[in-house]
Amino acid sequence: MKKIDVTEAIFEIKKAKGLSWETIAEAVGMSDVWVTSACLGMNSCPEDVADKLVSFLGLPAEAKSVLMEYPTKTWDQAIPQDPLVYRLYEIVGVYGDTLKEVIQEKFGDGIMSAIDFSMEVDKEENPKGDRVILTMNGKFLPYNAW
Amino acid sequence: MKKIDVTEAIFEIKKAKGLSWETIAEAVGMSDVWVTSACLGMNSCPEDVADKLVSFLGLPAEAKSVLMEYPTKTWDQAIPQDPLVYRLYEIVGVYGDTLKEVIQEKFGDGIMSAIDFSMEVDKEENPKGDRVILTMNGKFLPYNAW
Amino acid sequence: MKKIDVTEAIFEIKKAKGLSWETIAEAVGMSDVWVTSACLGMNSCPEDVADKLVSFLGLPAEAKSVLMEYPTKTWDQAIPQDPLVYRLYEIVGVYGDTLKEVIQEKFGDGIMSAIDFSMEVDKEENPKGDRVILTMNGKFLPYNAW
Amino acid sequence: MKKIDVTEAIFEIKKAKGLSWETIAEAVGMSDVWVTSACLGMNSCPEDVADKLVSFLGLPAEAKSVLMEYPTKTWDQAIPQDPLVYRLYEIVGVYGDTLKEVIQEKFGDGIMSAIDFSMEVDKEENPKGDRVILTMNGKFLPYNAW
Amino acid sequence: MKKIDVTEAIFEIKKAKGLSWETIAEAVGMSDVWVTSACLGMNSCPEDVADKLVSFLGLPAEAKSVLMEYPTKTWDQAIPQDPLVYRLYEIVGVYGDTLKEVIQEKFGDGIMSAIDFSMEVDKEENPKGDRVILTMNGKFLPYNAW
Amino acid sequence: MKKIDVTEAIFEIKKAKGLSWETIAEAVGMSDVWVTSACLGMNSCPEDVADKLVSFLGLPAEAKSVLMEYPTKTWDQAIPQDPLVYRLYEIVGVYGDTLKEVIQEKFGDGIMSAIDFSMEVDKEENPKGDRVILTMNGKFLPYNAW
Amino acid sequence: MKKIDVTEAIFEIKKAKGLSWETIAEAVGMSDVWVTSACLGMNSCPEDVADKLVSFLGLPAEAKSVLMEYPTKTWDQAIPQDPLVYRLYEIVGVYGDTLKEVIQEKFGDGIMSAIDFSMEVDKEENPKGDRVILTMNGKFLPYNAW
Amino acid sequence: MKKIDVTEAIFEIKKAKGLSWETIAEAVGMSDVWVTSACLGMNSCPEDVADKLVSFLGLPAEAKSVLMEYPTKTWDQAIPQDPLVYRLYEIVGVYGDTLKEVIQEKFGDGIMSAIDFSMEVDKEENPKGDRVILTMNGKFLPYNAW
Amino acid sequence: MKKIDVTEAIFEIKKAKGLSWETIAEAVGMSDVWVTSACLGMNSCPEDVADKLVSFLGLPAEAKSVLMEYPTKTWDQAIPQDPLVYRLYEIVGVYGDTLKEVIQEKFGDGIMSAIDFSMEVDKEENPKGDRVILTMNGKFLPYNAW
Amino acid sequence: MKKIDVTEAIFEIKKAKGLSWETIAEAVGMSDVWVTSACLGMNSCPEDVADKLVSFLGLPAEAKSVLMEYPTKTWDQAIPQDPLVYRLYEIVGVYGDTLKEVIQEKFGDGIMSAIDFSMEVDKEENPKGDRVILTMNGKFLPYNAW
C-alpha cells in the first residue's frame, strides 16, 4: 500500500459510511483540516493518530505504517485551476506584497513558517450569505545574519 | 500620475516621516492590510479614504483620483520567489485540496470569494517564538444550476 | 464509479440512443449548456436532477451519487488548442481589457462572477451564414474595502 | 505616433473631460465595446470613425491614420491575472468542452468566428445584486473537406 | 472505438496492404492531405467518405460513425520537435510578421481562415534536388466593426 | 544604425510616401514577401538589392551595410497571438503530422528546407469571399546515414 | 511492433550477449553514432542495414520494416537534465552566438544542416585525463533570396 | 564599462576597420572561436590577451579589466530560435541519448566537461556544397563514489 | 529489471527489515548519502558495492547488473515542490550569485564540479533545535582558454 | 537610492580600491558569504553592520538605511544558466530525494530551514586540483500536527 491507496480506501469508506471529515477528526482527536490533509497524504500521522484512524475507519492494518510515512508533498498545477483553490492562489498574488509589508512591519525581517503551522476553517453565518473564515497560524522565523 | 507613481511617492513619504502602515491605517480609519494594498495599487479607494490619504500623507492633489482608479491587479511571478510570499503559495499547494474538502463539507458546492473578502494579520506573542495569525474572511458563493 | 466513468457511460448511451444534449436537457428540465457541463463532470447535480438523469438515460444507480459529487474543475490546456475553444480564449485575450473598461464603467470596481453564473447558446439563422449567439449572465461582485 | 500613444492620449482626454466610453461610442455611432477596443488599439477604425474620434476627442490630426492602422493583437498574460479577466478565462476552461458539444450539436462541425464577431455588455438590475449580461455574436464557420 | 483506435487500425491495414495515402485518397475521391488528416483523426468525414473509407480499407462497421465524429483538434508539442514539422513552425516564426504585412496589404484588415481552408503538397522535380511545394488556400475573413 | 532602426525608418518612409510593399518589391526586382522580410530585418540583402532599397526609399547611406548584415532571426511569442499569425501556427499544429505523412510518402525520409526556401502570397477573387493562396517552396533534404 | 519495442528488444539482446555499440556498428558496416541513433529509433535504416541488424542481433523478422520506418524525432526535455546531455545544451547556450559569428564569417549567411549531417565520437588518451572529441559534420546551407 | 559595452565597442571597431574574427584571433594568438566568445562576453581573458585585444583593436584602456572580469554566462532563449543555433539545439535533442550511450561505452560513467573544453570550426570544401566541421574537445570527468 | 524496479525492491526490503540508510551504508562500506542515491537509481555502483548490496539486502541476482548500469539522471520538477527540497532550491536562488562571487574570488574563473563531487549530512544537536549540517565537496574546475 | 543602486556603488568602490569580499567581511566582522549576500541586496543589515559597511567602503550616508531595508528576494532564472550556479541546481535535482531520505531518517519529518540558516565556502588544497567545500547549516524544523 502506498499513500494514494490509503487515501482511496478512506474516500470509499467515508462515502459508504456517510462520514464527514469533522466526525473523523473528532474520533481521532485532531482538527478537521489537519486530519483531512493527513488522509489526503499530505501529512504524516503520529503513531497514536494512525492507530485511531485505522480502527475508527476499519482500514487494513498495513495502512497504519503508511499513514505514518513522511510524505513527499507535491501538487499537480503550478497555477491551480479549480475555482476554490484558484481564489486562494489569487489572494496570494494580489495580497502577497501587502502581507510582506504588514507582517515584516509587525515582526521584523523574516517569514511566517509553513512548517510550524496550523490552519482552521470556520463558518460565520450571515443573512447576506455565510462567510468562510480561514485562519492560518505560523511561527515567525527571523532571518539569520552570520 | 499613475498608480505606480503614487505608490513610490507614498513609500518615500512613509520613510521620510517614519510612518508605519498601522499609523496610516488608523489615520484613514481602515485596516492596515487593506490600506497597504490600496497604497501598493492593488485596491481602489473610496473618495473619502483617498481624501484622507492625500491629506494625511501630503500627497499631490492629483493623487486623489489615481487612488480612486480601479486597478488592474497583476503580479510578476506565477510562482512567487520571496520566501515570505512563497510560503503562502506553498500552503495553497499543500493544503488546497484539503481546504476544498473542508470548506465544501461545511458549506456545500461553491467557493470562498476573493472579492467580497477581507483579511487581517495579528501577532501572537509566544515565548518559543511569536506567531503570525493570518485571518481571511470571504463570502461563500454557491454554484448556480440553470 | 468516478465522474469520468459516468461521463463515458453517458456518451455511450447518448450515441447508442441517438440522443441530443437538447433532448437530455428537456428531459431533466434544465438548460442544455448546464446539463452538458454536468454530464462532462464540471458541475454537481442537485438530487432531483441526478435522479432524472439516471432514470432518463438508464444509468446504473451508483451514478446518482457520483453526479451529485462536487467536481474538481480542471482543464488540460492552459492555452486551449481546439479551434472552437481557442477562439473563445482569443476573445478573452483580445477583448479582456476592453471588457474590464466597459463592465467597470457600467458597474463600478468589481467583477462578473463565474460562480453565480449561467450561459446559453442560441442559433441565429442568417442567409450569409448562421450566427452563434453566446450569452453569459453573471452576478456583479463589487470589491470590498475594510 | 503609435497606437499606444493614441491610447494614452485618449485616456488622458477621457479623464480630463470626464467622458465615458458610452458617450464616446454614441458620438461616433458605434457600440461601446467596439469603440473601447479600437481606442485600446485592438481594432482598426474605418476612416469615418477615425475622423469622428479625432474631432470629438480633440486628438492631434496624426492620430487619424494611426487609428486606421491594422493592429497587431497581442496580450501580455497567457493566463490573465486581473480577476475580472481571469473569470472569463476560467469560464473558457470550465465550459470550453461544453460549448464545443452544444455549438457543434446545433451547427455541425465548425467554430464560432472571432473575426466576423461582435459583443455587447448589458446591465440587468436585480435586487439581489445586478447582473452582467455579456453577449457574443459570431458567424458559424463550417470546416471544409477537399 | 475511438478516433485513436480507428487511426491505429488504418495504419495497420495500410502497412499490411502496402497502400499509400495517395491510393486511399483516390479511392475515396478526396485529396491526399485531407484524407490523411481525417485518418489521423483531425477532420470529420462526411457520411459518403466514411462509407468509402470503411469499405475500401475493410475497417469494422463501427468505424464509420467514429470517422464522422467531430474531432477535438489538439497537438502534443506547443513547439514541435520533429524536424519536418519544426521547419514549418520556424517559417511561421520567421515570416509571421511578413505575411501579416503582405496579406493585409493585399486584402485589408483581416485574416486567412484556417477553417474554410484547404492545402496541397506537390513535388517539383529539380536536378539540384527536388522541391516540396506546399500550397495553402484559405478564405480571407475581414474584421467586423459594430 | 541597427536593423531595428532601418526597419523603423522604412516604415516611416513607406507611410509618408504612401508606398506599398509591392511597389518597393518591384523597384528592387525581388518578390514582395522576401523584400518585406528583409525590410523587417529577417533576411540579409545582397549588395545590389541593398543599394536599390537605399536609393529607392531614400534611406541614409549607412543603412546599406545594415541591410546586408546577417540577421539573428528571433520572434517574441513561442505561441503567436495575433489572429493572422496564430491561424498559421494552428495549421502547423493541426496538419503537422499530416504533412509529415504526405511529404515523406512522396519524397522519402527527410524534410522541406526552411533555408533553401521561398514563399509567395496570391489573391484569388471569389464571389463568396476572396481567398488567400500561400505557396511555400522548399528544397527537399533527405536524411543522411553514415 | 513499434520503434520503442524494437529499441527495447535491442537493449535486452545487447545486454544478454554482452555486445557493444561499436561491435554492432562494425557488424552492419556503419558508424557507431549513427547505428546507436537508429537503434534508439531516431533514424530510419536503409533496407540492407535493417537486414543486417535483424540477422546479427537475432531480432524478430517484423523488426526489419520497423527499423526502416521514418521516425518522428522528439525528446522529452526541452532543457535536458542528465549531466552528460545538459553539458551539450550548455555549450549551445554559451557558444551559440559565437558559432553563428564564426560559421557565418567563414561561409556567408546560412546554417549548418542538421539533416545532411554526420557526427563521430573519439577518445583522446591523456595522462591528465582522457578527452572526448566530438566532431560534427554538416552541409552548409545558404539562405535564399527570391 | 560593462562587458556589454566592450562587446558593442568591439563590434563597431570590427565593422569600421573591416576586421574578421580570424584576424583578431591571429593578432592575439588564440583560436577564433575562443576569441569571439571572449569578445561576446562569454569568457574572461587572461591579462596578456586582454592587453593585446585592447591594443590591437584600439579599445579604451578601461576595457582591459572588463575583458578580464569573470562573466556570468546566460542566454536569452531556453529553446534558441535563430536557425543556425536551433539546429545545434536540435542535434542535442535528437542525438543526446545516442551520445550518452556512445561516450559512456567508450569512457565509463561520466560526462564530457563543458569547462575544461575547447571547440573549433573548420570549412571542408565540397563540390556538392561546402561542409561545416565543428569539433568539440572536452575532458572526460568520471563520476565519483564516496 | 530496471532501476526503478530495484529501487522499489530496496524500499520494500528496507521497510520489512526495519533497516536505515545508515545501516545499509555501513554494510557496504560507503557513505549514507551516496548509497541512498545509488539505491534511488541516481548513481551507478562499482561491482563490489553492487555485490554487497545484493547480498546484504537479499536482492535478486539480476539486480547486481542493474545497480551497475549508468543512470540517466532526471528529476520531475524543474522547480521542486516538497518543502525540504524546495528550501535547497531557494538557497540556490537566493545565494547563487553570492556563491559565484565568493567561490570565484577564492579560486579564480571556474566552477565547483557536480561530478567529481561528494556530499554529507550531519546532525548538530542544539538545545534551541537541532541543526542540519550539509557539506558539499567538489573539485574546482578552471575555465580553459584556447 | 534603492538596493540595486547601493549594490552598484559597492561594486564600483570594490573594484576601484581593489578590495575582496573577504576583506570587506573582516572589516565588518561578519562572514564573507553573508556580507556578499547583503551587498548584493539579498539580506538586510543590522544597524551596526550597515554603519561599518558605509564607513569602511565610503558609501553615501543614505546607503545605511537602504542596507537595513528588508529585501524582496527574487532571482531571474527559474533554472539558472551560469555554469557555477547551474551545478548547484543540478545537485538539488540529482540529490534532492536522496537528501530528503537521509535528513528525514536522521531528524524525523521536517525540513532544514533556509531562514535560520548560514553557509560558508572553504578551499581545500589538493595536488589533483583544489576542492570547494560548501557547508550549509540550517535549523531542523519538524512538521506540526494540530
Automatic annotation (TrEMBL), chains A, B, C, D, E, F, G, H, I, J:
Key words of the record: Lyase
Matches recorded under CDD domains: Cyanase_C (cd00559)
Entry-linked SUPFAM superfamilies: Cyanase C-terminal domain (SSF55234), lambda repressor-like DNA-binding domains (SSF47413)
HAMAP family according to UniProt: Cyanate_hydrat
Reactions catalysed: cyanate + hydrogencarbonate + 3 H(+) = NH4(+) + 2 CO2
Gene Ontology MF, one: cyanate hydratase activity
Gene3D superfamilies for this protein: Cyanate lyase, C-terminal domain (3.30.1160.10), lambda repressor-like DNA-binding domains (1.10.260.40)
Residue stretches making up the Cyanate lyase C-terminal domain: 74-146
Protein name as catalogued: Cyanate hydratase
PANTHER family: CYANATE HYDRATASE
Similarity comment: Belongs to the cyanase family.
Active-site residues, as the UniProt record annotates them: R87, E90, S113
EC number(s) per entry: 4.2.1.104
Known function: Catalyzes the reaction of cyanate with bicarbonate to produce ammonia and carbon dioxide.
